[in-house]
Specification:
alpha+beta, single chain, 4 strands
Length: 154
């Protein structure tokens, strides 16, 4: 038995599996990664990832339900909604399932394409969550041209 050949074959298999894992994780990032890097995600993909349950029948995404600001972008109408929450994932889920801004939900329910982005609050760039929310409402013109009715909480 040639142990060198077995070692090379085993090493090759491990290398191929590692490459496949890296490719898979870059094509299918977790909600934690999406939040960490503030990446846009489609509303449909968000809902699918949000509703995955673990072996205890709890939402697997609950560990990523952090405090911060979320941005809902209606790409069909080029409108934004910016909000803040102490549990980002729960709040965005509410908007997309009829327990939030009624205009956002109506447009989503009628088939407009929505994308979501999260910005976790860490207290570094902004002193308060209200300040952070006002910044993003202004940045995305969410009051003038979007769904927000005010400039945010004071």
């Amino acid at each position: 038995m040639n142990y060198d050949i077995i070692f090379l074959q085993t090493t090759s298999i491990i290398l191929v599996l590692a490459i496949l894992i890296v490719i898979h994780s870059s094509l299918h990032p977790s909600l934690g990664s999406i939040i960490k890097h503030s990446n846009w995600i489609s509303a449909e993909r968000f809902l699918a990832m949000r509703n995955v349950r673990n072996k205890n029948n709890r939402l697997a995404s609950e560990k990523y339900n952090v405090k911060g600001v979320y941005i809902l972008h209606n790409r069909s109408k080029h409108k934004y909604y910016v909000g803040q929450a102490h549990k980002l994932l729960s709040r965005v889920n509410g908007h997309l399932t009829g327990k939030g801004n009624g205009n956002v939900y109506a447009d989503f329910a009628y088939g407009d394409r929505f994308y979501v982005k999260f910005h976790r609050f860490r207290g570094k760039a902004f002193k308060t969550l209200n300040e952070m929310e006002r910044y993003y409402i202004t940045k995305y013109h969410a009051q003038e041209d979007g769904y927000n009715k005010t400039i945010g909480n004071r």
